[in-house]
Amino acid sequence: MESLLAYINWDVNPEILPGILPVRWYGLLFSLGFFIGTWIMAKIFVRENRPESDADAILIYMVAATIIGARLGHVFFYQPDYYLTHPIEIIQIWKGGLASHGGAIGIIVALYFYAKNRPDQPWLWILDRIVIPVALAGCFIRFGNLMNSEIIGKATDVPWAFIFERAYVEDPMTPRHPAQLYESLTYLCIFFILGAIYKKEGPKLPQGRLFGLFLVLVFGMRFVWEFFKENQVAFEANMELNMGQWLSIPAVLAGLFFIWRSTTPAAAPPPYPEVNPNEGKKK
């Protein structure tokens, strides 16, 4: 293997102002994803004559659904035995342990209940639009994982390998794939792809198409990038595919179903509301 000087030494402090303010880059990026996402949704609502203020309501649903879903996903998908014997730790999210598949399920369920009370915003209609900022939030979150030196990649000798000096592993000086960066850049590209499609089709977009494409692209690429990562929990060592890959397969299949469904008459976009675009506008 080449000299360690040929690789990127990653020794970033996860705290923004260490010793002064215990705020982490991960928390900042996590929050930034929500707030930029709310701004994007507000712009979409204005374009399609929906109340701009509903973007704030979606923010509340999204924050609660993401945190609860991601936490429960980690509990039940990755460490059920541990948390069944330490149930009080389920609510201790500051100790780490969030699963993106659980977060995705939480968002889908929460937006179902959001849409039930808003006939002008059907469930698939809102999912088609929310996936645009969600892809960007995924980019921020994975970059936050990089700043935390977590979810590290497998050992490699590629010239862009990172040495995660702060990683909690037995051999932190081993060059590894920056798997977090791979995912982050992938989700950024998906954000631009979904945004470009929405910009072109807008209100004419068949219901379920962007949502299905999001599932196929995000979880299809998640399946690929898992081959470059270290396992997250011990039981994955004896698995041909790890838990992240097994959970990605039904998500991709569901995405293909929604893409197919978007080609049928059932996917016709809802009627364009004849309302004042300034109604419900934020003051």
Could you write a compact summary of the structure shown?
By secondary structure, this protein is mainly alpha-helical. It has eight helices and four strands; from the N terminus they run E-E-E-H-H-H-H-H-E-H-H-H.
Structural topology:
Layout (H helix, E strand, L loop, with lengths): L7 E3 L4 E3 L3 E4 H23 L6 H24 L2 H6 L14 H17 L6 H25 L14 E3 L14 H23 L7 H17 L17 H19 L22
Parallel strand pairs: 1-4
Antiparallel strand pairs: 2-3
Family: Belongs to the Lgt family.
InterPro entries: Lgt (IPR001640)
Function: Catalyzes the transfer of the diacylglyceryl group from phosphatidylglycerol to the sulfhydryl group of the N-terminal cysteine of a prolipoprotein, the first step in the formation of mature lipoproteins.
